[in-house]
Specification:
alpha/beta, Rossmann fold, six-stranded mixed beta sheet, three-stranded antiparallel beta sheet, 8 helices, globular, binds adenosine-5'-triphosphate, ATP hydrolysis activity, ion transport, ATP binding
Length: about 250
């Protein structure tokens, strides 16, 4: 049974159409990435899927009692606001010290409990946000451009962590991203959005689709190789781009 299904969903802000005729579903354990240019409706689609924005027409169905872990696009933390990682992990739902400690370790920031949130680097902060989302033992993890501002190795290791989390916790992952260079081949399925679904399929199918190339140009072919090394047999591209090997 699908975790979430959107059926012929159209959605507006005021009178401006943002999404039109979107059909979408996500199955348990899948990693699905939604890509699209700025303003193409990616965050809006996430908001609709979690129930924070109602469609104008069409229907969104969530599995009864679905546990969703949401990692927002950004979270402003005031520099002068004293808030430790440990306290943040218990907002709004209280978790035990042991649970918090174990989760921080799992996402690669072991021992960070007493650090101030405002003092963390971008990559450490994203991991703390992920830990907080995972503490609810989600069946689906939704992340809205979680690697914004991270450097290339930071992005690659964050996505690697997501793959590990999917394997160990078995949750589905729905990711919004414009990090085309590394994101594509970590996904079971890629959806290319521009107000409507332009194309979708496996990373390699989407990267070759004329609709995708019309939106993003031809220039990403070589650099998208980063993660494909994890999937033997799918490397049909040019390896001469000087990319890193994970
Ligand atoms: N609360 C709102 N009120 C009015 N318009 C909005 C609102 N939120 C988003 N929009 C508009 O809806 C469109 C889609 O926005 P959305 O944030 O979903 O795009 P996005 O694909 O996530 O963009 P980005 O990659 O820049 O984050 C944009 O034109 C945006 O200006």
């Amino acid at each position: 049974m699908s975790l979430i299904t959107a059926k012929d969903v159209s959605l507006k802000y005021g009178t401006t159409p943002i999404l039109e005729h979107v059909d979408f579903s996500i199955e348990p354990g899948e990693i699905v990435t939604v890509i699209g240019p700025n303003g193409s409706g990616k965050s809006t689609l996430l908001r609709a899927l979690i129930g924070a924005k109602q469609p104008a027409t069409g229907q969104i169905t969530r599995k009864a009692g679905l546990r969703i872990g949401y990692v927002p696009q950004r979270l402003m933390v005031e520099g002068h606001m004293p808030l430790t990682v440990r306290r943040f992990l218990s907002l709004p739902v209280r978790h035990s010290d042991a649970e918090a400690r174990e989760m921080l370790e799992r996402v690669g920031v072991a021992g960070f409990g007493e650090r101030q949130l405002a003092d963390l680097s971008g990559g450490q902060f994203q991991r703390v946000l992920l830990a907080r989302a995972l503490l609810g033992n989600p069946e689906i993890l939704m992340l809205d451009e979680p690697t914004q501002g991270l450097d290339q190795p930071g992005i690659a290791s964050f996505y690697q962590l997501l793959e590990e989390v999917r394997q160990s916790m078995g949750c589905a992952v729905l990711l919004v991203s414009h990090d085309l260079h590394v994101v594509m081949s970590t996904s079971d399925r890629v959806i290319c959005l521009n107000g409507h679904i332009c194309c979708q399929g496996t990373p390699s199918v989407v990267s070759e689709a004329p609709e995708y190339r019309a939106l993003f140009g031809e220039g990403t072919h070589g650099t998208m190789a980063l993660y494909q090394h994890a999937h033997a047999g799918e490397c049909d591209h040019d390896h001469s781009g000087g990319h890193e090997h994970g």
